[in-house]
Amino acid sequence: MRVLLAVAAILIVAVAAVRQPTLPSRYVAHSHASATRLQHDVVTLTSIPRCADDPASLDRAASTIEREFRNTSARVVVQTYAARRHVYRNVIASFGPESGELTIVGAHDDAFCEPHALPGADDNASGVAGLLELARLLAHERVTRPIALVAYSTEEPPFVGTEEMGSAIHAHSLGARPARALILEMIGCFTGDASLPGLFKFLYPRRGDFIAVAGRWQDVMLTREVKRGMSAATRVVSFTGPAFDASDHRSYWLAGREAVMITDTAYLRNPRYHTARDTPETLDYTRMASVVDGVLNALML
Prior knowledge:
There is one protein chain. Strand 1 and strand 2 form a beta hairpin. It is built from nine helices and eight strands. Helix 2 crosses helix 4 (121-138), helix 2 (35-46) crosses helix 9 (285-300) and helix 7 (220-230) crosses helix 9 (285-300). The chain has a single domain (2-300), classed as Zn peptidases (Aminopeptidase, 3-Layer(aba) Sandwich). The chain is 36% helix and 19% strand. The protein starts with a helix and ends with a helix. The chain has helices at 2-19, 35-46, 55-70, 121-138, 166-173, 200-203, 220-230, 249-254, 285-300; strands at 75-83, 86-95, 102-108, 147-152, 179-185, 211-216, 236-241, 258-263. It is α/β, with parallel strands linked by helices.
């Protein structure tokens, strides 16, 4: 019996370490995201090819994002950089004071384009639409800590996992400034099964109706903080474990920063991932709005 109790205790501790249970925050921001605006932004972005081998199309996307950022109270900067003999742009919207620890919310604006241009509605027009809506919401909040919303170019192949990712350029540009990052990577699919591998299917919901906050062991406090803030607005689970190289959070890890990914679990849930079927009408904009509300809550804690 003692052995069974010991094993049960170890399992409970292990599950708690991975899932990071926490009570939801009581704070709820007074601003609320618009599902209609999110849908409009996804449709707009998916009308642009956003392919890395066509820098002009990515410039069009960056210009659209810059225009929307400038329509708010944000301080907007365009960060240009060279990658594989082309010039690309990150677009940065800053809120709050200019000094102190910076919280970054980022999303890549390029799309997977092999063998040809794909719409990339969930991957990752959804994340960029979330950034644009956050900018509109933050314009009406009293922001007391530095926040930067960053739309990155060059996340998809052939740049993924290299120092030529837009997020890597931004991470290195921070120098010694204290910073942490929240990466929006596919936040619009809430249908079907989660299809999680191995033991994870026993630790997390089977239905794909949640958003996940994922980080390394080193990001445990940030993971808990973000989950706590988001729980007031949406159904959210969290994962804490070994490092995983899936998106722009990796760039901040390599630069010595804490970072988490906020995701609908991508290809584990969305069968349209990296296909021509990843189109705007397949996304759930009402749930997307609740995710954006959750991120805003986490930022304003």
